[in-house]
Amino acid sequence: MKLELVLVDDDEVLLTILEKMFLKVRSDVKITLYNSGQKALDHLTNTHSVSGKRFLLVDIYLNDMSGWDLLDELTKRNDAASKVFILTSSVNPIHLETAKNYSQVIDFFEKPISFDKIHRIFELIEKE
């Protein structure tokens, strides 16, 4: 089963760094990068997950929509295949509480992302 990760962040440099870090931990992962929530939604609409599940790492603050807007759209679409990790520089505790309101959200991680956090993400994915 090929694991699919969709990374959504408006910081393109960070996306490149994250891609390299994730691939260093697991080279067998298919990673798709999007600097826009809408582009990520278009991808999810136009492609189907080979394994039946795909995992998104979504920043709360995007240029075209918020991570919450993206989650709201996934909810409207009844997208059961997409599981989400929130990835944010926000330290606002309200955001952690908001994330708990979405059934698609597996966990919430604050930036910067470390290799320990990446290992934790893969552990959580294995439990899904």
UniProtKB/TrEMBL annotation:
InterPro entries: CheY-like_superfamily (IPR011006), Sig_transdc_resp-reg_receiver (IPR001789), TCS_response_regulator (IPR052893). Keywords: Phosphoprotein. The modification 4-aspartylphosphate is found at D59. GO terms for biological process: phosphorelay signal transduction system. Residues 4-126 form the Response regulatory domain. PANTHER family: RESPONSE REGULATOR RCP1, RESPONSE REGULATOR RCP1-RELATED. This is Response regulator receiver domain-containing protein. It comes from Algoriphagus boritolerans DSM 17298 = JCM 18970.
